[in-house]
Automatic annotation (TrEMBL):
Family: Belongs to the short-chain dehydrogenases/reductases (SDR) family.
Pfam families given in the database record: adh_short_C2
Membrane-traversing stretches: none
Name of the protein described by the UniProt record: 3-oxoacyl-[acyl-carrier protein] reductase
Source taxonomy: Bacteria, Pseudomonadati, Acidobacteriota, Terriglobia, Terriglobales
């Protein structure tokens, strides 16, 4: 039997990258998946099509998860189609780098409204839909907050907040049998990484040289641990911040 047979999973920001890979891997283990997207309906539809073609179940639901009314609509649609939520993957996020001289309140709020406030609001909105048996919440953080490189003040701060939220909510939601963990990836070869011209760049070679396993991370390298944390295999794991960075 597949690990997640009969479970309902909501994955935010699932039209590409880690979110898309997570949606596919969850579906492959039997979960019915709500593929959330904000701007790329085409990408979300492609993810859903690939899941359906493989014999899985999925729907695409558009919602800006930094916007509370839209978050409410995301879970209303989830309830309408599937009735509940067993797994929430808080993957939607943005990042930007630059020196403190380029810091603006607008840049700060753009990133934190999604990475931090959006994550909290999405989790809050999902809670009424979890069954009494509990479930699993997986936050996608980042290695950046522990490495804390120069020019990452906004991103490092937002991902450090994700770590703190994970710890707090694991204690707060534990009595409801909801486990909360964070996966903190290193540099992953996503569509954004490639579109930014970083593939085969000196930056990529630098990161590979620093990584003991000797390669870049791929979206599935994060998606497979998502499946583990969502499953009963991780039933005694909560409040953990797990690095997924090839040993870096």
């Amino acid at each position: 039997m597949r690990k997640l047979e009969g479970k309902i999973a909501v994955v935010t920001g699932a039209s590409k990258g880690i979110g898309a890979a997570s949606a596919r891997c969850l579906a492959a283990e039997g979960a019915s998946v709500v593929v959330n997207y904000h701007t790329s309906k085409e990408g979300a539809d492609e993810v859903v099509s690939s899941i359906l073609a493989a014999g899985g179940q999925a729907i695409a639901v558009g919602a800006d998860v930094s916007n509370e009314p839209e978050i409410a609509k995301l879970f209303e649609k989830t309830k309408e189609v599937y009735g509940r939520v067993d797994i929430l993957v808080n993957n939607a996020g943005v990042y930007a780098f630059g020196p403190i001289e380029q810091f603006t309140a607008e840049k700060y709020h753009h990133e934190h409204n999604l990475n931090v406030l959006g994550l909290i609001l999405t989790t809050k909105a999902a809670l009424p839909y979890f069954p009494k048996e509990g479930g699993s919440i997986i936050n996608i953080g980042s290695r950046v907050n522990s490495v804390a490189p120069a020019n990452s003040i906004i991103s490092s701060a937002s991902k450090a907040a994700v770590d703190a939220i994970t710890k707090v909510l694991s204690k707060e939601l534990g009595p409801r049998k909801i486990r909360v963990n964070s996966l903190n990836p290193g540099v992953i070869t996503t569509e954004g990484f490639i579109a930014g011209g970083l593939a085969d760049s000196p930056m990529q070679k630098h990161y590979v040289a620093l990584t003991p396993l000797g390669r870049m991370g791929e979206p599935d390298d994060v998606a497979l641990p998502v499946v583990f944390l969502a499953s009963e295999d991780a039933r005694w794991i909560s409040g953990e911040l797990i690095l997924v960075a090839g040993g870096e």
